[in-house]
Amino acid sequence: MSDPVAQLLPVAAVFLLAGLVKGVIGLGLPTVTMGLLGLLMKPAEAAALLILPSLATNLWQLFQGPRFGELLRRLRGMMAAIFIGTVAASGIVAGGDSALIRAGLGAALIVYALFGITKVSLQVPQASERWAGPVVGATTGLMTGATGVFVIPAVPYLAGLGLQRDVLVQALGLSFTVSTVALGLGLGWNGALPASAMGASLGAIAPALLGMAAGAWLRHRVSPAAFRRWFFIGLGVLGGEILWRAVSNGGLL
User: Fold this and answer.
1) What b-and-e string marks burial along 192-203, b requiring 16 or more CB atoms within 10 Å of the CB?
2) pTM here?
């Protein structure tokens, strides 16, 4: 697309939709953004656009919760591992084989959708958190650095800690904030965060926040459970489409 307006409109629409999803169910902005923009541009370009809107919405989510200090102490090992793993693996999404990255992105979306649709729940014993948190964090960091998606396996793990709903939402905000900062630093370190991308990312904050506000309004007028179910179904279909395109058009067959 050579027309700048023709480029901006679909990007703004993606962030508006992604913000709406996050406003309704508390997560999904980076997942929706990477999935849909992955159909329009290279994964590294999509990841660069994601940085500032993701950071803004996740900080909003993080500081609305009641127990930031307590969560930070409890999850510090996991957060440190996410940060290190993401920065270390960010060269993959920044400059790796686009077909392989798209295939990994599609597969990650499918796995996440299956977790959501089947409502598989983990039960994490508190005694296991000292070693399980860093292992989950490092794995999440590697997935983030390779695909730009923050959710696997961090979201199922955090859901398995038995946190109250508001505290869980804040824990997700903490995890996503750390992932976003680490991804931004990793992309910059690998030369995949040009000034033009940061300008476009800055411009995407407004539609993301607008969508998030609309989602918060909509949350009280629709069934979050039904919305969540259809979100995961759509996410699985999107992941399948991305994976099929990567395999069939990327010479992976």
Assistant:
1) bbeeebbebbeb
2) 0.87
